[in-house]
Amino acid sequence: MDYANLVPIIGVIVNITRGNDCCSQMLSLRTENGIVNFAVDMDTLIIDSRQLRQGMRVAAFYDSNLPVPLIFPPQYRAQIVTVLGRNEQIMLNYFDDGLTAADGSLQLNIAAGTVIKTVNGQNITCNLGEHMLLVYYTVTTRSIPPQTTPRKIIVLCS
User: Fold this and answer.
1) CA-CA distance, 107 to 27, in Å (whole number)?
2) Which residue from 112, 114, 92, 108 is spatially nearest to 143, judged by alpha carbons?
């Protein structure tokens, strides 16, 4: 999967309905810009295999290169869905050897308590640099680039 084209939408799940078949469902998220619907199917990656429920704050990523129907509210096919904590931010980006995001928008400072796993929950023993990383964090410094000590990092190996 080309993770570089994924765009996140953050919101709270307000409704979950059955999709076109027994293996798919439709999530309705309340976002800052209104309701957004996401189709979730067996190809959607649910981080940590969490059971999705109403009231959960989530980030749903869609592929910006795929066509979408011109309907309201917007509807996308979810590629990745992850549950977020209170005040938690998320970033999916390529990080270099210095753990700076490719667009220079964030630099990571790894702490002993930072949880680092692969997408399937395995420990990773390699250097985190030169990988696509899904980073969970709450606060950043005011420096340029902003720095953070993430709570969790998911390494997306391709």
Assistant:
1) 32
2) 108
Tokens for 149? 């000590």
Q: What is the pLDDT of residues 110-136, one digit of tens each?
A: 999 999 999 989 998 889 999 999 999
Q: Which residues pair with 29 in a beta bridge?
A: 13, 36
Between CA 118 and CA 152 the distance in angstroms is 11
- CA-nearest of 146, 155, 153 to 100 is 146
Cβ pair 133, 95 in contact under 8 A: yes
Nearest to 135 by CA among 3, 1, 2: 3
pLDDT in tens, 60-72: 999 999 988 888 9
Q: What is the percent of the chain with per-residue pLDDT over 90, rounded to a whole number?
A: 84
DSSP string, 20-50: SSTT-EEEEEEETTEEEEEEE-TTSEEGGGP
Instruction: Say what the pTM is.
Output: 0.93
